[in-house]
Queue: 4 jobs
Job 1
Amino acid sequence: MTDTENPQVENQNDNILLNSELNDERSAKTVVEQNAESVGVSTPTENAPAILLEEVDVYQKKILILPKVSFTIKKGEFVYLVGKTGAGKSSILKVLLAELPVKNGRVECAGYDLRTIKTRNIPYLRRKMGVIFQDYQLLVDKTVKENLLAALKATGWKEKKTMENRIEEVLKLVHLETKDFKYPYQLSGGEQQRVCIARALLNQPEVILADEPTGNLDPISAEEIFQLLHDINRTQGTTVLMSSHNFTMIDKFASRTICIEDGKLLDTML
């Protein structure tokens, strides 16, 4: 990730898809509902926020980098998280992914209380979230389709036709349906990032966390990625929290912005 080291590829797989019990029965109860007592959270209500942080001290390697962080993101919102390199943007995303512990305060994401979540249930949290990194983390020896197929298999999908249908759906969403046979090295940087967005969408996530997704892209490709993420937010209703330094695109695709400055959060919603 941008401020600190990226998660391992194993964690990446956990962010993609629900367990196999849900693959053929989308109307079934969510994992949270089925296991609420064991996870230590209550079933989320319709009006519950997608993300909530309340008086949270954010640490990195035992060093307090952001004190008393508080903000709420409603379901379906698109929010930018901005600030200088090292300000703590990636650390906040890691808190939401349960990679950094919550030592005090209150943190909830996608229906989970991250103060009480058990280690064995963290993969279920991450399967309700899509994560997009600055460096694409694609398998270079596999085609676009094979990359997505590997992600599906890693998280429990088994029916070949079901997997192929889902891959076709997400590739259409990112406008890459004619390039499923290509390898990452045959794609532009913008196209590779579209594959990553497709991978993040496989599980129909409630929340997308995007950490500097256009940091390695040219201005035209960056604009296309901004447009795509806003389109997904609008058409799919997916909550998006995106860290970025690209203020030109933030101005063009205006939305609520949380700025980290001198250890404090400045929120345009307030």
Job 2
Amino acid sequence: MKKLLLLGGSRYLMPVIKAGHDLGCHVITCDYLPDNYAHQFSDEYHNVSIIDKDAVLKLAQELKIDGIMSFACDPGVVSAAYVAEKMGLPFQCSYESAVILQDKGLFRKFLADNNFNVPHAKRYENVSSIPAEDYDFFCWPVIVKPVDSAGSKGVTKVESPDKLDEAIRIALDSSLSDSFIIEDFLTFDGYHSSADPFTVDGKLQFVSYSDQLFDPTADNPYTPAMIIWQSTMKQCHQDYLTAETQRLMDLLGMKHGIYNIETCVSTDGKPYIMEVSPRGGGCKIAELQRMAYGVDLIENEVRKALGMPLTEIKQTQCDGHWCEMIVHANIEKEGLLEEIVIDPVIMEKHVKVVDFAVKKGDLVKPFTGANMSLGDIFLRFDSRAELDDVMKRSNDWLKVILQ
């Protein structure tokens, strides 16, 4: 029986664990949080920090694993690439490429060095390391980010240099490596996109783009609140980004596998590749894409990790218009959940999946990042106009009630 090691233990691992079991393999999870949700569904759990790549390697060698993944788990990607390279296991890329992709500062430099569209950006380790002349390097306002966090944690928009210190503190609080980047704040022409494509032999076989919407009233207005397929991004921009993403894959020597890729088009008229991570995205993106496009990237990622033959992966068209709603509470202070109520008309007509991560009595906190999500709802519509009409009224038909 093949052994699959999964880094992390969030609920986003559930479809991966199911796919592994359906393929007849022994699924092992590990992290330093034994109470994480997914551990109760794996066949075996080990308390090992997923950011300690040598500790993960030691565990993997002792267990004699056949594959490793860090699906929807950004902190474990570098360790997974390291273990795969040391043990000769399948992975999307080399350890070196994973290090570049997982560090926002290194990635921005790689993009700039290879003539991709990229905002002005520099990597720093503390506020005192910013030379005075760098303040004129950026086109203000700027955005400050940890180099190594996902889910928009630690991200702040800054209007002027005198406001940097607090933003840097917030970024460093969310950084595992105590490093951050400052980059030009891009104003979107349309919407930001977050989606999961898949490569075979380094070539993109399935690509999608989304409209990622944010909640301006949330505690962190840069955390995604809705992700919509099909995208309204112009086809010419989609084609450009696909070609540039393929060029990036070629430069980094990518192989088989799933990726979470974020892109946008700025009001300067340029399309930008913002993030590329060799893992499935959080927010259940691949699960929704499976329903909307009929392509099972999750099963294929498990097959890839275990060295098993892939099923057919091809470009398909989106069946209708879909929205993944990241359920959250617009509150200033934390409270205890009483219930989450969905209008029965919306439930019957549009809702396809409800996956709440909380129950009555659980603590609900302000929406500061994706980790404060209360769950997800998948909805399907026949037209974008219908989707937009229903979703703009979401505060009327979805109620998060606190005690």
Job 3
Amino acid sequence: MKKVCSILYRTAISVMAVVCAAIAGRVLVADRFLVPSDSMYPTLQAGDRIWVNKLLYGPRIYRRLDFQDHAPLECFRLPGLRTIRPGDVIVFNFPFGYDDWSRIEFRINYVYCKRVAGAPGNVIGIRDGFTWNDSYDGILGVPENQKELSETDDSTLALISWYDAVPLSYPVWNVKNLGPMTVPAKGMTVSLDTLTRALYSHVIRYESGENPDLLDSYTFTHDWYFAMGDNSTDSRDSRFWGFIPDEFVVGIVSSCSLKGRNRNEYGRR
């Protein structure tokens, strides 16, 4: 009887160790996600299952596990192996998690997958369908898809809707022509005018709770990212809803999950 109990005890300990290791692995090392749409086509397709590396940027650790509706995100990030770079494909929590377009909110398990077009401090834009970044040599994304966007008639394109107002003299932005604009970086200060208030209003309200209309300048307290789908003509991304806070980033998609030639060979850092 003692021998049987000993075997059962060791088995239970082994099972618990395996379960704990699996959970720790998903939290600290890598996790798997299902791609729900073709917004990253042809790099990723609907139904693909991708591995997200959490070690590269650093795993996100929640300070509390009570994820009630509209509760603010409370977390810290362990040190990673490198920063997120333009061209990386990332998984992140959608910035407007509860579809309230007046404010950025975290919602657990509501995630998107896109390619980073702009990292903190980068000056970025889209010119006639082709994405550019002042810190990146080459095209960010899939040239064939951006060429298709370039050839699409402007009358069929959506106007950018993630800011409220721009100076009347400023060109109208759409999904194939926008910018230049600077991606917010921690410690960066911007003077606020009609355009920059429109660009950064959600960012300022999220970070500080202050009304941008009452400020002449603002110093950012977080790093932010601008990300777009490789399927340039059929992707809802930062062109429509703006910047992504650094703490919303889950991790970087492993290159083994990406399709052949689309593993970011279109540009050079």
Job 4
Amino acid sequence: MRLLFIRHADPDYARDSLTPRGEEEALALAETLADEKIDAVFCSPLGRAKRTMEVGFSLRADQLPVKILPWLREFDAVTPHPPQQRAWDFLPEDIARYGEDAYSLEDYVKAVTPYRDSTDFIAKRDEAFAGLDALLAEYGYQKDGLLYRVAASNDRTLVFFCHFGIEALLLSRLVNAPPLVFFQGTCASPSSITEVYTEERRQGIASFRILHFGETAHLRKKGLEDSFAARFSETFDDPRRHD
């Protein structure tokens, strides 16, 4: 089975939609998705993801049904104490003080001070993990510890239109990595495609593997650079974004 996670195109957060640049990105994405083999489509309930999906599928001949999943909305859990931050906005030097436990699959919540006592973070994480696990089980892949038991192997392609934070969280679940690895160590550009697929090296036991992360070939083909959204300044004298 193959999973495609598509981050919404360049966002207009005030309107919860896309900027004019975002509309361009979504149109470029539409050309890539026009002939893609797709079996099921899922989308965040937020407007910027839904608009990306609408434009992104506008060149397809078929009419794919879309299921809106509440747990695909942006993972917007914030730390309970000021300065309130999202997990992908923590300063690296703050995390470094917590040591290696911050990147432990079992201990990251209790090791990283901003997560402590954050029932908001834990509840939303658990909701997203439960939603993903239940969906994959419907398609024949049952989460069992660090593996997936295969009830019905298949080569279906599922597409998820969502957001960087929730994408990072779900990827951590699929490949058994602490969420901070993806929150802090990756950045999926607007309209990018991340491709994940199953490997069943022994019958009945599967694992997920990331084949492509944050692919934006559709933008380069149109002469467009990646949008800056979700990134921070490359050098300190670049004033675009530090916090």
